Amino acid sequence: VKVSSARHAVRIDGAVTATINGGEYTLITSAGVTQHALNVSGTASGKAYVIINDGKFVGPKGTDSNSGRAINVQTGAKVTIYGGLYSGGKNETLKSVGELEVYGGKYDQDVKEYCAPARICKANDDSVYKYIVVPGLDGSGTETDPFLITNLTELEYFKASVNAGETTYNYPGRWVALGADIDMAGTTWREGIGDGHEWSFD
C-alpha cells in the first residue's frame, strides 16, 4: 500500500480487532497535514485493538512534531507490536495516547518508552533502522546501575537466560537488584538460577 492522497495509509477506527502479519504501508505526505502510515483510534462504540506481527510501516517524517509517524495510537485504542520495520515521524516513530506495547521490531528512532516488560530498545547496526527491541533487563549490570528485576516476567527471563548460558549480558561479575516485590503465588520452580541449584516458591 503506497498512498499519497489520504490522511493515513491505513486507518482503523472503532470497536474492531485487527491483526497485521505483513505487507508494506507507505504514506507520501502533503505539507502541513497531520498524517501517519497507520492511525488507530477507538470510538464511543468501543476500543480498537491492533496486533502487528510483521510488516513495513513508513511514515513521511512530517513537517511538525505531530506528523508523519509510522504508528499513531489515539485515545480508546490499543496496539501490540511483535515485529516489523518502522520509520517516520519528525520527532518519534511511534506515538500513543492510548495503549501501546512493543515486544520486537526495528525502528529508526528510539522507542524505549513503549517497551513491554523484559524488553529493551538498543542500538542496531543499520543505517535506517538504528534501534531494535529485544528481550532484556534495564540497567548495565554495574554496582551503581544493576540489572533491575521488577516483575515475574523479568525474573523468569533472567532465570532462563542465565541457565541457557546467554552471553548478551556477560552475567559473571555483574550486579542484579530486585526493584519491586514480586508475587510468586501459583508459581513453582523446579530449577534455580545458575549452578544447578534446586528451589521452589509457593
Task: Describe the protein's architecture and organization.
With 202 residues, the protein is mainly beta. 6% of the residues lie in helices and 33% in strands. It contains one helix and 17 strands. The chain has one helix spanning 152-163; strands at 2-3, 8-13, 17-20, 24-27, 36-41, 48-52, 56-58, 71-73, 77-81, 85-87, 94-96, 99-102, 106-107, 119-123, 131-135, 147-149, 176-178. A seven-stranded mixed beta sheet has the order 1-4-7-10-13-15-14, with no helix packed on it. A four-stranded parallel beta sheet has the order 2-5-8-11, with no helix packed on it. Strands 3-6-9-12 form a four-stranded parallel beta sheet, with no helix packed on it. The longest helix is centred in the last third of the chain and has 12 residues, at 152-163. It is elongated. Residues 197-202 have low confidence and may be disordered.
Please state the CA-atom Rg, rounded to the nearest Å: 20 Å
Number of strands: 17
User: What is the strand content?
Assistant: 25-35%
Low-confidence sequence ranges: 197-202
List the helices and strands in order: EEEEEEEEEEEEEEEEHE
What would the average pLDDT be, to the nearest integer? 85
Largest sheet: 7 strands, mixed
Structural class designation: mainly beta
How far the N terminus sits from the C terminus, by CA atoms, comes to 52 Å
- What's the helical proportion of residues? under 10%
The largest beta-sheet arranges its strands as 1-4-7-10-13-15-14
What would the principal axes of the Cα set say about the shape? elongated
Number of helices: 1
